[in-house]
Amino acid sequence: MKVILLSGGSGKRLWPLSNDTRSKQFLRLLASPSGEQESMVQRVVRQIVESQITDSITLATSNTQHDIITNQLGASIDLVTEPERHDTFPAIALAVNFLLNERQCDPQEVIVVMPCDVYTEAGYFKAAARMAEAAARDEADIVLMGIRPTSGTTEFGYIVPGQPQKGQLATPVQQFVEKPSRDRAAALLKEGAWWNAGVFAFKAAYLQNIVDHYVPSASFAQLRAQYGRLPRISFDYEVVEQAARLAFVSYSGQWKDIGTWDALAEELPTSTIGRVTLAGEVDNTHAINELDLPLLCVGTRDLVVAASPDGLLVAAKDAGEMIKDYVERMPARPMYEERRWGEYKVLNSVTFPDGHQILTKELRIAAGKGISYQKHLHRDEVWTFVDGEGLLVIDDKVTRVGRGTVVNIVKGQMHAVKALTPLTFIEVQSGDMLVEEDILRFPWDWDAAEAAL
Amino acid sequence: MKVILLSGGSGKRLWPLSNDTRSKQFLRLLASPSGEQESMVQRVVRQIVESQITDSITLATSNTQHDIITNQLGASIDLVTEPERHDTFPAIALAVNFLLNERQCDPQEVIVVMPCDVYTEAGYFKAAARMAEAAARDEADIVLMGIRPTSGTTEFGYIVPGQPQKGQLATPVQQFVEKPSRDRAAALLKEGAWWNAGVFAFKAAYLQNIVDHYVPSASFAQLRAQYGRLPRISFDYEVVEQAARLAFVSYSGQWKDIGTWDALAEELPTSTIGRVTLAGEVDNTHAINELDLPLLCVGTRDLVVAASPDGLLVAAKDAGEMIKDYVERMPARPMYEERRWGEYKVLNSVTFPDGHQILTKELRIAAGKGISYQKHLHRDEVWTFVDGEGLLVIDDKVTRVGRGTVVNIVKGQMHAVKALTPLTFIEVQSGDMLVEEDILRFPWDWDAAEAAL
Questions:
Q1: DSSP character for B1?
Q2: CA A139, A140, A146: angle at the middle one, nearest 5?
């Protein structure tokens, strides 16, 4: 059995900690057995490893999440990135193709697909193993996981159970209803329906047949190149609703979507994280501060306070659902990002009356990592190195840099930097158009450059 | 009649907007007739001018407030700065000496001393004029202003009225009680006592006699040089309580100390200032954001939210009194300052494990102003000019600077800069000890330098 983890979402509901590149599943806020805080994706990978249900985890995600996933999970799991973000059917199709063609997975092998942003416990993974076993025994084309409902929400799919079959691990599904109306949901609850957890078990060949119907492909590269030809539709609509034989395994343990501040607050290890002081009679207040500034909460009640380089949130606990609508109108530039090479935060951004812009950043490059050889057409960059040791290339010339080095990289100059030890510098960008897209990349051979030094 | 305004206080109760150099009276938050926001000190000076009670205002303050006062009030009023901050008696003594010796004030001239951080209306200044007239007529040695009490607070002095004298403007004071106990205050209220407003009228010669008793001086410079020999005591204790003949003029109009967030919120022109979005059912929430980050308040009630480069505050309106105690334990470096030459804000401050520090600032120098010729022994500074035009001196060599100029000023190098147009640059300080005190100043003749260019 192979596990495919789906990592999606932009997580606007947990603004300002989450942004377009740091979705909610990457927030390192949850208590972990080691005592350090972990993110939801780190938690689910740890839980899968501990459950010993598989030795193969593939993470299906978009290009924008590549760097942060590598930072959080290392190189121990396979990453399959969508060329552009479509929906869950194409994303799963691509990952299954990867397993078949790049990892020589047996077409009869069972795949279990699960989300990476659900807060669960060990029984959840036991249920997944049972699903895989049922799929292996061919009890159904697709085996689902049913969650015991706690409300008549219209946000989930509902599974109406059929007659249990003797000797079978999974119960046949009589009917599957995706996101019903409120009245329909109430009726489904009375019929004993279960929520659909979005966990799916099936044989690799079963899905590959469906995919071949749209885009026949002999290799992973071929399918990835034609990714846009797969229908942009959810796995539920394209596969689950079309399956001739559906069954499900039920799970009644802890299962929650930590998608709102209220829900997240319940799982935080402490009521404050970061530089926070609670003063006076503070009640039911959670405060998370990722800024260097002190945060003081005095006499607050039923409140979530969150501060990050992206912004400041002060929200009544019962009002958190509304955040998303407002955040969608906020400016898009992320003020903090984890990158493959390290991390940066924006310190300052100014546009002068004549349209000239400056952007000041602190960049930290991890030892051994570097920023690719590149040039910009619309901006100068001044780099003041303040800690660590590294190598710098300007127009093919390599020099050593460290504390005290100052470089003025003007428009059109080629430049790259590599950290020998953790390297920190302050960057002042200055130009008429400061956008991520103003970047032209070129190859650079660090090994040859270092050998020539 | 001459007015002396007292400007003191560190304003920790309005943290994070106020700090050691930006006391509460300098916060530009109040509505003004012009539609622009004004500070308390700007408001009181405007009110004095409008009341036409005097053509002479002298502001008594400490050295640290010199720059911000000049920025807010211009050069239209006299500033008398204490060499070090002592108490109200020495501060007033110095200002009176300044008027006598530097402004050739007649010793029989009446002086009215008033605080600059009280929120009042026109009647207050009419009462001050009446006090001055009573002092001029010699109705008492010291004429006070009595405020109609609204509570039995133990924070103020109380004035017990004597028998009004026919034909006199002021009422004799039977007794003056400074900061009574709670029981005593309740009894004083029953006796018909008034609060002492901290406004005093007296003849210059009267105070000069008291001062001469401690430090006889023939000139302002002489007294200022011996400032430390004046007793560090309040004017109330040293002068008011010792006066043989005390009288007072009552004032029953608006009078409030805007010393807490709750009180300030009532006088704000709008419920939000700066980049703030209120979402959902927000009730009785005031939010002030001086940061460049968006602030989102969702469903909040009875709350003050304030964000500045110094920190973030989220406080229940009824709990604001507690802020001071906590803020006293906060780090002292101001993150934003108005200076004689312009303003700066701290963007970033990092201390590395080996003790090396960096501090990144954005500095804006007003046209025609400059930073004095100086050098540092413990830090390098990298200046990246991003807007405006100016002149730079490095080790006696003058160059023109503007957008795109980058300068690396290493330890021990002499440097000065002058703005020809409003000049903005990013400064990265780097060194083993980044403190304001690491500065050696030298004379520099800009006129000669410009002529030689």
A1: -
A2: 100
- Pick B382's closest partner by Cβ from A310, A327, A406: A406
Complex ipTM over 0.85: no
Residues in chain B: 453
φ, ψ at B316 (rounded to 5°): -60, 140
- In the block, which residue shows the tokens 């036991």? A126
Taking only the tens of pLDDT, chain B with its 453 residues reads 999 999 977 667 888 988 767 788 999 889 888 888 899 999 999 999 999 999 899 999 887 788 888 888 987 899 999 988 888 999 999 999 999 999 999 999 999 999 998 999 999 999 999 999 999 999 999 999 999 999 888 888 899 999 999 999 999 999 988 889 999 999 999 999 999 999 999 999 999 999 999 999 889 999 999 999 999 999 998 999 899 999 999 999 999 888 888 888 888 888 999 999 999 899 999 999 988 889 999 999 999 999 998 899 999 988 877 888 888 777 666 778 888 899 998 888 888 888 899 999 999 999 999 999 999 999 999 999 999 999 999 999 999 999 999 999 999 999 999 999 999 999 999 998 888 789 999 999 988 888 877
Work out the number of other CB atoms within 10 angstroms of the CB of residue A221: 12
Q: Contact A314/B323, CB-based, under 8 Å?
A: no
Q: Which of helix, strand or coil describes residue B57?
A: strand
pTM exceeds 0.95: no
Q: Which of A281, A295, A319 has the CB atom closest to B311's CB atom?
A: A295
Please, are residues A347 and A361 in contact by the beta-carbon 8 Å criterion?
yes
- Pairing verdict, β B397-402 and B389-394: antiparallel
Nearest-neighbour CA in chain A from B17: distance (Å): 13
List the one residue out of B111, B117, B359, B340 whose CA is nearest residue B235: B111
CB-nearest partner of A348 from B316, B318, B362: B362
A356/B293 CB distance under 8 A: no
Contact B118, B109 (CB under 8 A): no
